[in-house]
Every structure is written in structure tokens, then in C-alpha cells.
């Protein structure tokens, strides 16, 4: 993999879209303990290590915003998904930069 991420979005842009009522497909690729500590309401949780085996749970035709703690693992996930034909956007800065509410 050459680490090419087709599209990126900031956590602030994602929060604004949610506040405006946009229906987003959100994918969180963090580990289970990170997910349990807090995640964005409505996000789907598939840890990065399970992503290849669980592709059938995602819609390749729908744009999916991928997130992790800092933006690195989500970048890897975006590259993997993009190579498989998925329409993905990396949330740069990850949940470290998320200022809105999280659910537990």
C-alpha cells in the first residue's frame, strides 16, 4: 500500500454535518476498549484488524467517513477500502480532535 487517501474531512466538518441533520455513514476502526470509552452516535464499529473479513457489512456505493483515535488507522482503513472500490473519506485528527458529544 502506498498510503494514498482519496478524500479527507475534519472532525469539525463532520460535527457540522451531523448538526445540520445530514445522514452520514460513519465507520469507527478503533479497538473495542477505545469504542467503549466513547464514540460518535450512529457510527458503525469494525476494528481495523477485522475490516478485511467484514467488508460485507459496508455499502461500497455509499460514501463512508472513516475514523480512529488520531487519523492514522483510519487512513490505512481508507486505503484498504478504496482499493476494494469503496467511496471513503478519512476523518483527519480522529477523535482526539472531536469536540462534540460522544456516547458510551
Explained architecture:
The chain is built from three helices and five strands, in the order E-H-E-H-E-E-H-E. The chain is of the alpha/beta class. The chain has one domain (8-97): 3-Layer(aba) Sandwich (Oxidized Rhodanese, domain 1), CATH 3.40.250. It has a five-stranded parallel β-sheet with strand order 1-5-4-2-3.
Main features:
104 residues, alpha/beta, Oxidized Rhodanese, domain 1, 5-stranded parallel sheet, 15% strand, globular
**Judging from the principal axes of the Cα atoms, what is the shape?**
globular
- End-to-end Cα distance, whole Å, is 33 Å
Q: Average pLDDT, to the nearest integer? A: 93
Instruction: Indicate the low-confidence ranges by residue numbers.
Output: none
Describe the structure concisely:
The protein is of the alpha/beta class and 104 residues long. The chain has 3 helices and 5 strands, in the order E-H-E-H-E-E-H-E. The protein has helices at 11-19, 32-37, 72-83, and strands at residues 8-9, 25-28, 44-45, 64-67, 88-91.
